[in-house]
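Lecture 7 notes: from sequence to structure.

We start with a single chain of 297 residues. Read the sequence below before looking at the structure.
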Amino acid sequence: MTVREEGTPVAFRTGISERQRRFGEELRRVRDAAGRSALEIGQAIGVKGPAVSHIESGRMGLNLDRLNVWLDLCEITDTDYRAGLAAMSKGSKTAWWNDYKPHVHPTAIDLAEAEASATALDSYQTLLIPGLLQTKAYSEIIHDYAEKRVEFRQRRQELLAVENAPPFHAVIHEAALHMMYGGPTIMRDQLNHLIEVSRLPHVTVQILSFDCTTYSRSETPFVLMHGAHVRLDSVLLEHPHDSDFLGDPEDVAAFRRRFERLRGLALPPLNTATPSSPSHRDSWGLIQHVRYKIQGR
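Now the structure, written as tokens:
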């Protein structure tokens, strides 16, 4: 199916990525906040009214010139927000994750693309080590030895090794340290890797211990991805059979507060430069304790 834009046929997208969906959603929020109708926007950028609806649903794209007209008409003056939207409007057909579309779930592709553009990442996990911190052997168990999915996860982890890598802060429930996925050897190596990767200056790891006496609605794992502007932050809620992206400002703000509470309840971060003493309980000490228990099995 096609629509006509100034006399030129434009095909609808057959598959809408999370980036494209979120870009359209942001444009709709901007238009609604400014009190502009779809007809007004369409006339300003030179398209028919229905095309505006298709742009806002992610079914059609928008070039930079028209984006600027849209934002000008809606009186958006924040340069960082405008730049973030401009970046969000563009995709890359040569991005590495496109090669894995036949092999992994679309949500995984969306996550890789979101991680690549994030300015910072906050992750909370309950029963698993965060994907960006998993060893290959651990990932193989989690993905039932599906080669391409394991390879995809390894490629995602390259994000933490690049120059100017985004800060990554993980709060991991102690339960994840005790799950014997793959057996003692794999879990011991995974805990060793967790300690090693925490040496990176942009990686922070905290453990939420069983001893925590305060409840903090922390039953659902999630990843908070900080965008180029706070209005472009998003959350990935991880469910057993699927995952959901949230972009509504109120929803994102709620998870931002939730993560701040979790990091406040968790033990102090791993600090491999100054390991803890017996009198000072922190994430380093707890991981070491679990590792020693595994060695005794």
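The chain has two domains: 2-88, 96-295. Keep this in mind for problem set 3.
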